[in-house]
Amino acid sequence: MGDIAIVLAKGLVGGVFVAAFALIGESVQPKSFSGLFAAAPSIALAALAITLLTDGSPEAGEQALAMVFGAIAMVLFCVLAAVAIDRLDAVYGSAVSFVGWFAVAGASYFLVLR
């Protein structure tokens, strides 16, 4: 499969997943949960499906592991932001949270994914 075909397939499958997740987001209550079903999970699933089809399961497994570590880093960012923004202002609290995210993401890359 050529590079252009892969990009087009990712776009098509990603669009289908975005539409499906948008429908799920419209049906959940309360509406504040609809953000959980926004574009990021659907694009991640589309990219994972295309990687599985084009490169095989070892590459898809590595990509899925990277997504798990990214999610862990994002949870840490959210927890740090909730605390740091209350104690500091928004700019400094966000910066501190970003440093925490970067530390977890960087450590997971160098220790596990590389």
Give a short synopsis of this structure.
This protein is mostly helical and 114 residues long.
Q: Pairing-aware structural class of the strands and helices?
A: mainly alpha
Number of domains: 2
Proportion of residues in helical segments: over 70%
Q: Note the gap between the termini.
A: 26 Å
Quaternary organisation of the protein chains: single chain
Q: Which terms would index this structure?
A:
single chain; 114 residues; 2 domains; flat; mainly alpha
What features would you describe in this structure?
The protein has helices at residues 3-27, 39-55, 57-87, 90-113. The model has no long low-confidence stretch (mean pLDDT 79). By secondary structure, it is an all-alpha fold. The protein contains four helices and no strands. The protein folds into two domains: 1-55, no CATH class; 57-114.
Furnish the topology, listing elements before pairings.
Elements: H1 3-27, H2 39-55, H3 57-87, H4 90-113
